[in-house]
Amino acid sequence: MRTTRPSLWGGGTASVEQVQITFDCAEPERVARFWCGVGLPRAAAAEGVFATWDDFDRARPPEKQGSAFACADPTGVGPRRYFQRVPEGKVVKNRLHLDVRVGTGLVGDERLAVLEAECARLVALGATRVRLLTADEDDESCLVMQDVEGNEFCLD
């Protein structure tokens, strides 16, 4: 039996065991490999049954092969990232995005240098630089980018 814990807003909530971030995309393997290159490791096994994700994929019916990939934190602490093929393309700006935290604790020119270096590395992997948001009285600088299928993320 699952227990509940009090919510900050007064009600009980279910005990969440893990959060998964799902990417809808046209080419799951391509997008997953990009995000693995960003620093999210690729899952060593699929669903605990197969030795590798490739073994899992080969066991699927031909029409399903290549339709999904996953990246997971080998320690099990961070969220799993799941990439699934969908028929429709990306049309509008994401309502949710990832922040890739490379400049935590840095300010000014030191922060910008770290952001620019990581931006150059990710552009070489297929990302697109969108714009630099410069520091103001409330926030430090960050770089808005897009992955290989146009999903926005920030270098923060």
Q: Explain this structure to me?
A:
The structure is a single chain. By secondary structure, this protein is of the alpha/beta class. It is built from three helices and nine strands. The termini are far apart.
Itemize the secondary structure elements and their pairings:
Blueprint: E1 4-6, E2 12-14, E3 20-25, H1 28-38, H2 53-59, E4 68-71, E5 80-85, E6 98-100, H3 108-124, E7 128-133, E8 142-146, E9 152-155
Parallel strand pairs: 3-5, 6-9
Antiparallel strand pairs: 1-2, 4-5, 7-8, 8-9
Beta-strand portion reads 25-35%
Low-confidence stretches: none
- SS field, number of helical segments: 3
Along the chain, the helix and strand elements come as EEEHHEEEHEEE
Task: Round the Cα radius of gyration to an integer and report it.
Answer: 18 Å
Question: In one word, what is the shape?
Answer: globular
**What is the β-strand count?**
9
Order of strands, main sheet, comes to 6-9-8-7
The residue fraction in helices comes out at 10-25%
Summing up helix and strand content along with how strands pair, one would put the structural category as alpha/beta
What separation lies between the terminal Cα atoms? 40 Å
The total tally of domains equals: 2
Mean pLDDT: 84
Outline the biggest β-sheet.
4 strands, mixed
